[in-house]
Every structure is written in structure tokens, then in C-alpha cells.
Amino acid sequence: MATPMEKDIEKALGRMVGRHGGLCLKWVCPGWAGVPDRIILLPGGHVMFVELKRDPSASGSSMQTWWARKLRGLGFIHLWVKSHEDVKALEKSILDRIRPDKPEVRWSRAGRCPVTPEQFEAIYADTEVQRDG
User: What is the pTM of this model?
Assistant: First the structure.
């Protein structure tokens, strides 16, 4: 199976977020290299920053990694979305966030897989930021 184009993953992400009442906005920030590709705004005031990659084995540039660390350090969620499977996993996380009757799923510091609230607390118990990629 061929690797999907980044634009195809980006379109799938935008459609999925829109189905759940959110916005998936392209972030263009003149003068600031490496900012994430998309800002996701969800009902209830949830904000996520997403860097898209077409290759699941690809890592971000040094500036993209810096932004990921900076945004997480400020308390935001930053995710690397590298496949249609990542979009599907993110959809589950979004549904858990905007539907209070469901248990919450949070994303790991690496921004790749959903974890339980207990695992989330264990991940954030230390203060060291893990390197992505």
C-alpha cells in the first residue's frame, strides 16, 4: 500500500474535526519557522496543535520539535499525525473530550497514542520533556 500524501491526511483530519463541531485551522505565522501545521479548536474550549507528516517514520525538524516542546510546556496538546490511523485515534480522543458521559482519554507526551488518565498522570509526574521522533 502506498504512503498517503500529507494533503490527504490533512483533509481527513479537517473533515473529522468538522464532524464533531470543531475547527481545524491552518496556522500561518510569518517570521516563525516550524510552527505546527494546524490548530484544532473543539467544543468546550479544547485546543490542540497538530504537525502533519506523510511518513510514519519521519521526525520533525529541529524547529518543529522546539515548537512541540514549547507548546507542551505551556500546557497545550501537541500531536504528530502521520497516518489515517492517527486521525482515527485522534477522533476517539476528541469524542472522549467533548462527550462528558464518556471516560477521558489523553494523548501521550510523544503525541502518538491515547493513554488512560492514570497513565497520563504517570507520564507527567516527571518534569523532563521527552524528545520526539
Answer: 0.69
